[in-house]
Amino acid sequence: MKRKIYIAFFITILLSVGVYFLFFHKDKNLKYIPENADIVVLLDVKKATRQYISSFIMHPSKWFEENKKGKSKISVKNSGLKIPDFLQIFHLYKTNISEWYTILEIDDQEKFSAFLKSQQFVNDGKGRFKNSQFFIKTEGDKCIVGTSNLNFDHIGKPFSQKFRNNRLNADSFIKDGLGSISFISELRTQNFSFNVKDDEIEIKNEENSVDFKALIADLEKKTQFLQAELDSENIKKISSFFDESLNDSISVNSLKMSANLSEVNDTIISYGYDDNFNEIEKVSYQKIVQPDYEIVLQTSNPDKIWNYFKSKKWINAQNQCTAIPFQPNLVSKSEKLISIKSIRKSSEVEKIKNHNFIFMKNSSLLLSSFKTLNNPIFKDVEYLYYGNKNQNYTIKIKFKRDKFPLILR
Most exposed: 62, 91, 150, 252, by fewest CB within 10 Å? Predict the structure, then answer.
């Protein structure tokens, strides 16, 4: 009897050690973040795996759904790639915000080749591949995966070589979240954790203790497609992603914006010839989506903004803001305000809420206008929220309710 107890105890210890190393033990060294990265996204792969398994067990109907799926494509798990305990995705300094990269090790070249073929990657030559979504460059036993191939050759040396082979540790970026987003500058690194819940993704800085639920609930009741209110600091931070020189060129104290979407008839005039070769005018109509909006910039120096817009040729002779490509609008200037309103119909901004936020609701009209958004991921989004109060920042991406939590979809 005692022998059986010892054997059971020994097996239990072995299983516990196995479970620990399989799901909890992590290599926290970050090998492949380059020195010219300015944004780093880390995903705790083992924590995500535990969350997936837990959700999978709690939803038995998903078990049968997985068995019905086709086996024509090879999964990343069997791709021949070594997935690190912390997936390291980075953005390079002074590159397009849509360009993101990660570096992975190739464990099995044969499996990797089969994976590329199953995912419809085309070989461009010189170890470069592409499909409709990603670009890959292979270098020996490593591969670079990116949303673009423009800067494959500009990825700098790893941070470890810059700091005398002292490798970066995941603890420098991520604490309790499923992952983190870190903004790196010469002065400091700002870390934001993210978590995936049943029907939302939440991103916030680690010391954040502010609850934005009341404001979000109020914004959800409104009919506007887009609402925003930002102070000068938030305007600077957001505009720096698009145009660094803009911050120094204009002085805006606050911005308020409201917009709706509507479908309107657009007149198309073309010309042809009749049987006698006389030119005739042909008029046809098509449905297009147009925003109705108002943007209000509060400033102590409206002339400076006006002149800057003029110098950029963003205001034409009819006082229309050409920097906004949606339907005719009118730019006006008063003692402390610059206002831009759509002419056909405007969505007037509401009274100041004394918050910094951007709130965007999903819309079928939005999805029909932009083909890149017309996919299952964006269709399931309910709203996008950005909020800031003092040093507290929160981003929420709310998805429509489903029978399965986000991590299983």
Answer: 150
Between CA 8 and CA 50 the distance in angstroms is 25
Q: Contact 402/380 with Cβ under 8 angstroms?
A: yes
- Cα separation, 222 vs 225, in Å, equals 9
Burial class (CB within 10 angstroms; exposed 0-12, middle 13-18, buried 19+) of 24: exposed
Element (H, E) at 321: none
Cα dihedral sign for 246, 249, 254, 260? negative
Q: Decide: 38 and 184 in contact? Cβ < 8 Å.
A: yes
Q: Which pLDDT score is estimated for 339? A: 92
Residues in Cβ contact with 126 at an 8 Å cutoff, skipping those fewer than 6 apart: none
Contact between 87 and 178 (Cβ < 8 Å): no
Domain count, the chain: 2
Percent of the chain exceeding pLDDT 90 equals 33
In a domain, 11, yes or no: no
What is the spatial distance between Cα 54 and Cα 23, in angstroms, rounded to a whole number? 12
Confirm if 193 and 176 have CB atoms less than 8 A apart: yes
- Contact between 261 and 293 under an 8 Å Cβ cutoff? The reply is no
Same domain, 181 and 223: no
Q: What is the DSSP letter of 154?
A: G
DSSP reduced 3-state for 260:
strand
Domain limits at 333? 211-389
pLDDT of residue 171: 87
For residue 163, what are its two tokens?
A: 């700091």
Statement: residue 231 has pLDDT above 70: yes
Please report whether residue 142 resides in a domain: yes
Q: Which of 195, 224, 251 is the endpoint of a domain? A: 195
Q: Are residues 358 and 222 in the same domain?
A: yes
Cβ atoms of 350 and 215 closer than 8 Å:
no
Q: Determine the Cα–Cα distance for residues 336 and 302; give it in Å rounded to an integer.
A: 6
179 part of a folded domain: yes
**Same domain membership, residue 301 and residue 248:** yes
pLDDT at 160 over 80: no
CA distance 342 to 311: 22
What angle, 0 to 180 degrees and rounded to 10, lies between the N-to-C axes of helices 2-23 and 45-58? Answer: 120
> Do 126 and 251 belong together in one domain?
no
Q: Looking at mean pLDDT, say which of 20-24, 67-71, 89-93 comes out highest.
A: 89-93
Helix (H) or strand (E) holding 331: strand 329-333
